[in-house]
Design brief:
By secondary structure, the chain is mostly helical. It has a domain of 54 residues: 30s Ribosomal Protein S18. The protein has four helices and no strands.
Length: 97
């Protein structure tokens, strides 16, 4: 008795029969940080409307790959959003229905 009889032959299928290797293709285009290009733009916790652009519908802070911000300004954005949340200028969670 062959010890590998119980196992199916190797194939290009996933555990549920679908083909593997598919998925979204992401073609990155070079993004520049809008705060680096516009030196006059200031990240401030009091600018709630500007900060809302960097929050998802669930109320989560959007990642750098979505916002296009550099690491320095993403940290400043996160800090400003957290301060605005603490002062009830921004919601902690998404919009309630």
């Amino acid at each position: 008795m062959d010890k590998h009889e119980d196992y199916p032959a190797a194939s290009n299928q996933g555990p549920y029969g679908e083909a593997q290797g598919g998925g979204r293709r992401f073609y990155a285009h070079p993004r520049t940080c809008q705060f680096c290009t516009d030196k006059s733009a200031v990240i401030d916790y009091k600018q709630a409307e500007m900060l809302r652009r960097f929050i998802s519908e669930d109320g989560k802070i959007r990642p750098r790959r979505q916002t296009g911000s550099c690491a320095k300004h993403q940290r400043q954005l996160a800090r400003a959003i957290k301060r605005a949340r603490h002062l009830a200028m921004l919601p902690y969670t998404g919009q309630s229905h």
